[in-house]
Automatic annotation (TrEMBL):
Subcellular location: Cytoplasm, Cytosol; Nucleus
The protein's name: Probable aminoacyl tRNA synthase complex-interacting multifunctional protein 2 isoform X2
BP terms from Gene Ontology: translation
Matches recorded under Pfam families: Thioredoxin_16 (PF18569)
Predominant localisation class: cytoplasm
Superkingdom of origin: Eukaryota
UniProt keyword annotation of Nucleus present: yes
Native organism: Musca domestica
Keyword Phosphoprotein: no
Record-linked SUPFAM superfamilies: GST C-terminal domain-like (SSF47616)
Length: 298
């Protein structure tokens, strides 16, 4: 056969001596490196040592598991980890609806999501939003207003007989209010208005608006809320207030003759805008605000 020439020079490879050399535990005899024909017996003590180490590691893992369970108990979390809340709906023939995964909301104390409190109050006889709050290490102090918000959330009782969704609100130094609804994928939903849309679709049937003839109108009002929260000048805020007044017209609520998710969005947005006083609202909006406050209590 044709013999190929060596393209690379021969190098002597020196194996580092700092590496740990594993002993052969699978057989009772091994060959001697210096004399392959010579065999030596391996003591079973090495195998016993590995077994003891494994047992020690298992005990340490069990102790760690107990410590984590204690931490979860201290924080008031479920001992079974992340759960999905499911319930049987009477609107679809008694079929079990798709389970609702617990959601996490990251929010800055300067941008308090009052919509959570508004929905929790408005839905207390229909649906439960169980909100638990925590403070991230990036926040040294959340401020008086956020603490008052937490106390208001605690005052709303949780009815275990009602269908519910568990919400974990984390005060964090973040730019946008964001919600993570998937336990396996980090797919955030940005903005309080979009969080309202999501919860409105999984909340009580009385507030779901996909099949409503006013679906487009409700979405348009929520879009206006998004713009309102980003107004930086009095002129821009006055323009949005004028648009809301036109949308309301002579209706009792933005969703017609009954409270809707659009009213919760507008009411919570106005609550987040201290620069907008009663004198800036039209008489129709002032009357609407009083009616909506009976439901949202904010």
């Amino acid at each position: 056969m044709y013999e190929l020439k060596t393209l690379l020079p021969q190098f002597d490879i020196t194996v580092p001596k700092c590496m740990y050399e594993m002993k052969n535990l699978n057989t009772a005899i091994v060959g001697d490196k210096t004399n392959p024909k010579k065999v030596t017996e391996v003591s079973c003590d090495d195998a016993q040592t590995v077994v003891k180490r494994q047992e020690k590691v298992m005990l340490q893992l069990e102790e760690l598991k107990k410590q984590l369970a204690g931490i979860r108990s201290t924080l008031g979390l479920c001992q079974k980890g992340s759960q999905a809340t499911s319930y049987i709906s009477s609107n679809n023939g008694g079929l079990r609806e798709e389970p609702l995964h617990d959601v996490v909301i990251n929010g800055h104390p300067n941008f308090i999501p009052y919509a959570l409190l508004a929905m929790k109050n408005a839905w207390k006889d229909l649906f439960t939003i169980d909100v638990k709050t925590f403070t991230h290490s990036t926040m040294s102090d959340i401020g008086k207003e956020a603490k008052a918000f937490e106390e208001a959330l605690k005052r709303v009782k949780v009815d275990p007989s009602k269908p519910k969704v568990n919400v974990t609100l984390i005060w964090k130094n973040c730019e946008h209010t964001e919600m993570i609804s998937s336990p396996t994928m980090y797919v955030p939903i940005y903005g309080e208005v979009n969080i309202i849309r999501y919860l409105g679709r999984v909340g009580p049937a009385e507030y779901r608006y996909e099949d409503s003839p006013l679906c487009n109108e409700i979405d348009a009002v929520l879009d206006i809320c998004y713009q309102l929260l980003r107004c930086n000048t009095p002129k821009a805020r006055a323009n949005i207030i004028r648009i809301l007044n036109i949308r309301l017209q002579k209706q009792q609520y933005f969703g017609g003759d009954k409270m809707s998710i659009a009213d919760i969005g507008v009411h919570s947005s106005l609550r987040r805008m201290p620069a907008i006083a009663d004198k800036d609202l039209t008489p129709a909006l002032l009357e609407w605000r009083k009616r909506a406050a009976k439901f949202t209590l904010i």
